[in-house]
Structure formats: structure tokens, C-alpha cells
């Protein structure tokens, strides 16, 4: 069953036995953006970090492109096609 959460703190505080199938997040969010959330999880909860799909409208910035290339997680550019998002979610949900 899909579950949504508000803010970037929830994946950081979720018990390991409650791993998400996918975490779809915008790179730029108030308080804790998707990149900051990912960077915290990649060190502390690497299995959870493998579940990220990034959504962004900012692929033109070199810093954004460099981050997306280096992290290796799928991303979709806004405005995105729903099929592209579903494919990206499918990619990360198969990662273990």
C-alpha cells in the first residue's frame, strides 16, 4: 500500500524493518531537501538510500546534474510523464 510522508525526517527515523519500496522526493524542499536526506541516509542507512527517486525541475544547473550522476539513483524532470516516474519507482523497488 503506498504511503506518503511529510518532510524529509520520516525516512531518517523509520525503523529498518519498515523499509520503503521507494522514496520519491524533490531535490529542493523546505527544511530538509531530497539531496540532504539522501546524503544522510547513504552513510547511516544505505539500504534505504538505494530506494530514492529524485524529482527535479533543475537539471540545467551543473551542480544538480553532477549530484544526480554521482549518486546513481534514477531521476525524473518536471514536468514529468507518469510512465517515467512509474519506471523509476520500479527500478528502485527491485533493489535489495
Short description:
Helix content is 44%, strand content 12%. The protein is an alpha/beta fold.
Mind explaining what this structure looks like?
44% of the residues lie in helices and 12% in strands. By secondary structure, the protein is α/β, with parallel strands linked by helices. It has a single domain (9-93), classed as Rossmann fold. Strands 1-2-3 form a 3-stranded parallel sheet, with helices on both faces. The relative contact order is 0.18. The mean pLDDT is 81.
List the helices and strands and how they pair.
Elements: H1 9-13, E1 23-26, H2 34-44, H3 46-49, E2 52-56, H4 62-71, E3 75-77, H5 82-93
Parallel strand pairs: 1-2, 2-3
Give the uncertain stretches in residue-range form. Answer: none
Order of helices and strands: HEHHEHEH
- Share in β-strands: 5-15%
Query: Cα distance, first to last residue?
Result: 19 Å
Sheet of most strands: 3 strands, parallel
Mean of residue pLDDT? 81
Corresponding CATH architecture = 3-Layer(aba) Sandwich
Structural class: alpha/beta
Count of individual domains: 1
Amino acid at each position: 500500500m503506498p504511503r506518503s510522508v511529510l518532510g524529509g525526517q520520516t525516512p531518517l527515523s523509520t525503523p529498518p524493518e519498515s523499509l520503503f519500496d521507494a522514496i520519491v522526493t524533490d531535490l529542493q524542499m523546505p527544511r530538509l531537501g531530497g539531496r540532504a536526506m539522501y546524503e544522510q541516509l547513504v552513510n547511516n542507512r544505505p539500504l534505504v538510500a538505494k530506494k530514492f527517486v529524485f524529482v527535479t525541475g533543475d537539471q540545467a544547473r551543473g551542480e544538480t546534474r553532477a549530484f544526480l550522476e554521482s549518486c546513481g539513483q534514477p531521476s525524473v524532470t518536471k514536468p514529468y510523464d507518469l510512465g517515467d516516474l512509474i519506471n523509476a519507482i520500479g527500478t528502485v523497488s527491485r533493489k535489495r
